[in-house]
Amino acid sequence: MNSTTATATPRVLILGAGMSGILAGIKLREEGIHSFEILEMGDSVGGTWRDNTYPGLSCDVPAHSYDYSFEPNWRWKSLYAEGHEIHAYFKHCADKYGVTAHVRFGTRVNSVQREGAEWIVTDTDGVRRRADIVINCLGVLVHPKDPEIEGLQTFEGARFHSARWDHRVPLDGRRIGVIGTGSTAVQITVALAERATSFKMFQRTAQWVCPNFDVRRPGWLRALHRIFPRLSWAAGRFQNFLLESTFAQAVVGNKTMKNLLEWLARRHLSQVKDPVLREQLTPRFEIGCRRLIFSDKFYQAIQAPGVELVTEAIERIEPKGIRTRDGRLHELDVMVCATGFHALDYTRNLVITGEHGQSLGDQWSQGAQALRSVAISGFPNFFMIVGPHSPIGNFSLTGISEIQMGYIMKLVRMIRRGEASAMAPLPHAQTQYNDYIREGFKNTAWVSGCSSWYLDANGLPRMYPYTPAQYRRDMKEPDLEEFSIVA
Ligand code: NAP
Q1: What pLDDT, on the 0 to 100 scale, is given for residue 3?
Q2: Which atom of ligand 1 approaches the CA of 453 most closely?
Q3: Global pTM?
């Protein structure tokens, strides 16, 4: 990238070419800013939808509410899109809006350092890039977490994490085991239960599962949406409305909605005929405390012949399979670790150093804090999409990203107009904002007594604790009183 002045055409580096990185590129181009690069470690855009390819992968947020608002997608085959469709959609958006050409694939960033009035971004090949603005779009569920179980490495069959699926491994007629009961494990169980000779799901914690009322979108409906794209747009708004007036309310203190969800989940669970199995599948924590699972078919799959829910704790892993505490050896050909991620670990494998030489990892050692999720005190012109306390447990990630990028663009425009060369939150403003966030936690389902990736090391939620409407109000306009502005 050529060096330019810090105003009219700021040099921007975007980290990551997933959903939010593509969006950031689109919005910069829309503004006439072409002086940007997107640094992406993979060989294709799409982030999580590129990395996760497990059988059964789909998005449990209705497809149209996962569209960018400016690019409604008529192609979705069902109410809920499959993973490969979503990946194709983001690739399409990156191409259509001219973003792909800005992506430097195979570039893994390992440090982002403030030097004087600019940022130096260094990749693992030692290439140093300079920027006036950095937008961190590295995502939240990126780094797979293998289970800490004795003997994991000794297993002689095929073993992989759900986010690193090994498609060379045959599945039909094999003995398959999946460790975990989160959204991923549930989708894998539905997809593979009937393909395996025997399928075992190893459960440590039973989860709440709601039906998602999935339906195919017939050809005529897709054709209609193709001719009238506003229909897709309207469907997206309607789906968002439903999501925001039910689930999003339930998790932040709306008792009626919470009771409604619980009623729905219990009714769904009642299709499990065997009372022992039903009891084993009944969660022991309040609904919404952990990420709710949406699946029409899970209970059907777990009751299918050849499928077993193993609730006995895992003792260790042996060459032939999984040994549970009752002494039983569950022999397997394929072991899938659907054991989640080092979630929201924003500085993992990345050193970010601010204006006083301070490391963001250190600054966040007691919990990540930002101003309105997008800017960090001491890190001028360093912005984040889906940063700390984003409403990721409440509503669609694309919607959140658009709101956050809209806010960031207002700051970028000030830089372009020469009203500021650098901006970072004032420490007291950031503290005040985080007090406001903390105040909201007490009403949320996330603190009702369960362990989950929603909570930080101090047991505090890492999400925005109010309603979507409140979030829109909070993000409407940057309050310049909250910023330290260098002219
Ligand atoms: P997860 O929700 O973190 O679940 C991990 C599972 O692995 C849990 O059941 C956990 O048990 C189990 N586990 C971990 N270590 C274990 C061990 N040593 N022994 C036994 N069990 C162990 O991970 P995920 O299912 O991959 O989902 C992560 C997030 O991705 C979701 O919450 C959701 O936000 C997102 N997601 C979304 C979709 C979608 O359709 N939109 C689909 C998939 C995932 P415990 O519960 O006891 O800890």
Answers
A1: 39
A2: 3
A3: 0.96
